[in-house]
Specification:
globular; 18% strand; 6-stranded mixed beta sheet; alpha/beta; 5-stranded mixed beta sheet; 13 helices; 11 strands
Length: 327
């Protein structure tokens, strides 16, 4: 073996090692991802509706991947803390953000200086579901549908109030009010349970609520759900009409997705995509998501990225329309 050959071999080895060092995730991809514990980041506290969903998928993905998956809760700043945390993590597929794509996109308009540009700092892996916010009144309210709610609000002449617990709820309510030609004053609550007594007692004329809380309270006989913000009725809640059925051109269908740091290698992203696809194809998962008002939704990483970009642009208009002040 010549000295020149040995030099070339040594150079090749050094070059390969250097490449692996500057391309995080390459080694893990080649050695069989996932080979260690995976962390799912949740943007809401433990015990919240979002936390229940994230933990469900952590358990199912653990079974598919034959690897431990833990949930780390990073609540605060409407999800910005969690999103930034994930974006700055090592891009090796071991830190995964499972969250509302709608909320992730909306933060680009809700904050004057978002900590990251989500369309550049994160990359999509897979969708999870689509689910709309809902218009609700007390179960014993005389108001039976959206037409009756609109007439009720007109009769109050601007003295009506509505409850909201999230930006998506505020936007849905404000768009409905503008399209219906009526007005009401928002009363904001930190959580759905905080608003419940005021809805049930009739202090609020209506509320715009997330589907997890709204459906749970409907099942308990406390709320009547009048409409969903999606353009059509949901497969999971076929008995609840869409606002469009009342002549109101509302198309606000929220979605959840899976994200990783932007520089995560393609092979890891595709393996994660396939693992989530396997879980989403399971009838048990469909039943779980349906229970919370969501329909299963799947796609490619490219489609997730494209929808995130589209949703960012849509929310610029929603925030302006609802006159939401930036934080």
């Amino acid at each position: 073996m010549t000295a020149q050959f040995l030099k070339l071999t040594r150079r090749t080895f050094i070059a390969a090692a250097a490449t692996a060092a500057v391309l995080p995730g390459v080694a893990s991809a080649q050695s069989g991802y996932p080979g260690d514990t995976v962390t799912f980041v949740c943007a809401f506290p433990a015990g919240s509706g979002a936390d229940v969903l994230v933990r469900y998928f952590s358990e199912k993905i653990a079974a598919v991947a034959k690897q431990t998956v833990i949930v780390e809760n990073k609540p605060g700043a409407n999800g910005n803390i969690a999103a930034e945390y994930v974006s700055r993590a090592k891009p090796d597929g071991y830190t995964v953000y499972v969250h509302s794509g709608t909320s992730t996109a909306a933060n680009m308009s809700l904050f004057k200086k978002p900590p990251i540009d989500v369309t550049k700092a994160l990359r999509g892996v897979q969708f999870i579901n689509k689910q709309p916010f809902m218009i609700a009144v007390a179960a014993d309210s005389p108001i039976k549908d959206i037409s009756e709610l609109t007439q009720h609000l007109k009769a109050k002449g601007g003295e009506a109030t509505y409850g909201s617990t999230a930006t998506s709820g505020k936007v849905l309510a404000e768009v409905y009010l503008q399209l219906a030609g009526v007005s009401a004053t928002e009363v904001a609550y930190k959580t759905g349970p905080d608003s419940l007594n005021d809805i049930v007692s009739g202090q609020l004329d209506f509320a715009a609520l997330d589907p997890v809380f709204a459906l749970s309270q409907q099942r308990e006989g406390r709320l009547r759900l009048l409409a969903v913000g999606s353009p059509q009725r949901m497969k999971s809640t076929p008995d609840i009409p869409a606002l469009r059925e009342y002549g109101l051109n509302v198309d606000q269908l929220g979605w959840w997705g899976v994200f990783v740091p932007a520089k995560t290698p393609d092979d890891i992203v595709m393996k994660l995509n396939a693992m989530f696809q396997e879980v989403l194809d399971n009838p048990e998962t469909e039943a779980f998501l349906n229970k919370f008002g969501g329909d299963v939704y799947t796609g490619t990483p490219k489609e997730v990225d494209e929808l995130l970009l589209k949703t960012v642009e849509e929310w610029r208009g929603y925030v302006a329309l609802a006159k939401i002040p930036q934080n």
